[in-house]
Model the fold of this input.
Amino acid sequence: MADGQEADKNIEIWKFKKFIKDLEAARGNGTSMISLIMPPRDQISLFTKMMGDEFSTASNIKSRVNKQSVLGAIKSAQQRLKLYNKVPPNGLVLYTGTIVTEDGKEKKVTIDFEPFRPINASLYLCDDKFHTEVLNELLESDDKFGFIVMDGNGTIVGTLSVLTFRRNMEEEGNRPEGLPFFGRRNAITIQPNVSGLILAGSADLKTELSQSAMFDPRLQAKILKFIQEKRLIGKYFEEISLDTRKFVVGVDDTLKALEMGAVKILIVWENLDMNRYVLKNSTTSEIIIKHLNEEQETDQSNFRAPVGSAELEVQEKMPLLEWFATEYKKFGCTLEFVTNKSQEGSQFCRGFGGIGGILRYQLDIRSFDEFSDDGEVYDDSEDDCEVCDDSELEPINSFPMLVQENGGKRTAPVQEIEETPKELN
Done:
């Protein structure tokens, strides 16, 4: 299990990935979305001049609506560049323009930030989408990982960038017992120059290799098997199998335990498809919290009060994963994202709904009311276990992620809504 610092780092990486996905999903009405990237040691004045030239060129656009959108985006970029005397040490990234929200309205956004790693690219594009290729490159690790892929005919040994093939078949009748395809004179003894090693291949052959005395101990120490994830979920399953009452399963019970401060480790599938709604009863003004997956969102009964059938007005909608990532520290817990790629992770997702937690103390969650201390109601009207299928990211409606200040210097994306949303023409 990762320590607190490593867990926080993983969450920030997840936030940045989510931010990139939201940018990629955003679409504009015409070529009114500007992507501007400046490398370190470049000059703000050069980009300011370039934006001035672009403004003059855009003035000749024939479509009045498109021309206004493009000119507005350029003006926003010019105003934001005035906040900088020079390009920050890691470079500067700026996105601005008019996007179309999922409800068909226009929203003007401007986002600028210094990336967390030096960026060496220079980019200016005015398009109907934001260009994020350079941001994805920031997430690429400098570490190299090795692969050993085996079947009955041979072995492929290589890294992500360089791949070499070596046949390791033994002659018939010269195979040590328990190692049908590997003999002593062909034992794997490569000097490791990778951060991690992945074994793959047919059946149990890869397991036999890893457990063999002929497998160099220097490589043995490099094998990656989702160790952190397996240990974490293994601990969670152990609490369940021993019925320690120090565990919680599903969205509804997990939220209740969080409100009580009982959750020590919050475990969530990294692709959990569920939104958190803050709803207001139009008759009583009661605030209700609901957590709905994509299928539940199409059921209009979820947006009506159970008593009196009053309409529930949507005050706020946010992906539940995003809410966890921004709020978990308030509950005094550690947040761990897991995949469904390991055996344990797949079981956690399919059998437990992709969300649960390890508790600080024994707790019988069913003995508590449906209400939290502040009167909010947590409502999960469907079985939590059927939320694990992958689905496409919904179109962007906001950029709430990664808003933070560090000594007055922006180190993360900042959104500015410059215009009240209006209906499209």
Remarks:
- The chain is about 30% helix and 25% strand.
- Residues 229-379 form a domain with the 60s Ribosomal Protein L30; Chain: A; fold (CATH 3.30.1330.30).
